[in-house]
Design goal:
single chain, mainly alpha, about 0% strand, elongated
């Protein structure tokens, strides 16, 4: 019963994290090339909502490792610890994605005050900081996300806690996702490029399939990540 509850909770958190991530992109959109205090203030509610979605996504991701760790630990404690660490680093790297837009909104409101000095300079500095995160924050967090996918799905594949097709799909789909992060990091690809979507969709869909499986079927009975030959030697002849 406990494993079933854990599986359902993890599945729900996967759905929440993905839904919040998609909504954050919808509300925050792409950064404008021309910045004005009036435009920022007019879109303050939308920007704040987008930042809130980033925080919800980060919170959902942060809750997954402690929930699934006991299950993964039964199969491989080092890989389970690696999963916890990689997802924790990912969450830390996601937080500036919420802080940056909120900082721009706060500075723009302060800059609208008649007594504010160097308003445009401070607003531009905050906006530059937020845009800089778009250049490095997404790709670096993507690298740690890909690492967590590899660790999680390698354990799932070896132990058959979910159908091997699902975990094998994730292990294959992580390659284009990682390539996307590296291409964005080196400025070869932008987040608005159609290729960006093409590269990340296979793994995004896989995560939703995994979440649905955990919600409806839970974890399959699994065997530890022990070598099969060791098990055979332990059997009486």
């Amino acid at each position: 019963m406990r494993r079933r509850t854990t599986a359902r909770a993890v599945g729900v958190l996967f759905f929440i994290a993905t839904a919040a991530g998609v909504l954050s992109v919808v509300f925050l959109g792409q950064p404008d090339t021309e910045l004005s205090r009036e435009a920022v203030i007019q879109g303050a509610r939308t920007t704040t909502t987008g930042a809130l979605m980033v925080l919800i996504m980060a919170a959902a991701i942060a809750m997954i490792p402690p929930l699934i760790f006991p299950v993964l630990k039964e199969r491989s404690e080092p890989l389970a610890l690696g999963y916890v660490v990689s997802r924790t680093v990912e969450v830390v790297l996601l937080l500036p994605g919420a802080i940056g837009p909120l900082m721009v909104v706060a500075v723009s409101r302060e800059a609208s005050s008649p007594n504010s000095s160097n308003a445009d300079a401070r607003l531009q500095a905050a906006y530059t900081w937020s845009q800089t995160y778009d250049d490095w924050g997404h790709p670096v967090s993507s690298i740690f996300f890909c690492l967590s996918v590899l660790l999680l799905n390698w354990v799932l594949y070896r132990s058959s806690m979910v159908p091997r097709l699902i975990s094998a799909w994730a292990l294959a789909a992580v390659a284009p996702y990682l390539a996307d992060g590296l291409l964005v990091m080196f400025g070869v690809l932008s987040l608005s490029s159609p290729l960006h979507t093409i590269l990340i969709v296979p793994l995004a869909v896989n995560e939703m399939v995994l979440a649905l499986w955990l919600l409806t079927r839970g974890f399959n009975p699994a065997t530890p990540l022990a070598d099969a030959s060791t098990t055979r030697r332990a059997e009486p002849t």
